[in-house]
Design a protein that fits this description.
Blueprint (H helix, E strand, L loop, with lengths): L3 E5 L6 H20 L4 E2 L8 E2 L4 E5 L14 E2 L12 E5 L2 E4 L13 E2 L8 E5 L6 H14 L4 E4 L7 H11 L9
Helix pairs in contact: 1-2, 1-3, 2-3
Length: about 180
């Protein structure tokens, strides 16, 4: 249980398309980091992993943000942006409803992985609406740009993807037209 994004993808992506995806996702991740979103590799440590065959990142585990027990976070209606501190908009049975993306002292959750080849065409990333959710949504927008047949769905609605679209527009010059399938 938790805020999650889902996608269906081809099991193999040609090298040129994958290179374009990793190039643009690299731009997106750099912009996110420049804007204060702490990112690490798939384990939430070091730096995001981008190679000619592998793309993996997560929020940074040792982010330095204050510890807070938020339970299972869920975005409130019209939730946007990211903050460093508790920003409750209410509660639901699992924990806090939040007005923006926030972590409880650990910005990592589940790894975002999108490799050139995959054993399965279905994948997902549970972000728990932590700050790196913006990077995940922007990365999926890049992927959909280069692979229009990829099907992207989410626990959030199109409004919750506005920050990802903005980051993608700023970093890559496209993405405003993206809508969930």
């Amino acid at each position: 249980m938790g805020y999650t994004h889902y996608w269906r993808r081809p099991q193999v992506i040609d090298a040129d398309t994958y290179a374009a995806i990793t190039r643009d996702v690299g731009k997106v991740l750099q912009l996110c980091q420049d804007q204060g979103i702490p990112l690490g590799d798939a384990y939430g440590e070091g730096q995001p992993d981008i190679t000619s065959k592998t793309l993996g990142f997560n929020g940074l585990k040792q982010c330095g943000h204050p510890h807070q027990d938020l339970g299972i976070v869920w975005p409130a209606d019209h939730a946007r942006g990211a903050t460093l501190s508790d920003n409750p908009a209410g509660t639901w049975f699992g924990g806090a409803l939040v007005a923006s993306r926030v972590c409880g002292g650990d910005c990592s959750h589940e790894s975002f992985c999108f490799d050139q080849t995959a054993n399965d065409s279905f994948a997902f990333c549970k972000t728990a609406f932590k700050p790196y959710d913006i990077a995940v949504t922007a990365a999926l927008i890049v992927i959909k740009h280069y692979l229009p047949a990829v099907v992207v769905t989410s626990d959030g609605d199109d409004e919750k993807w506005a920050d990802g679209r903005l980051v993608c527009m700023m970093a890559c010059g496209y993405g405003e037209e993206f809508r969930l399938d």
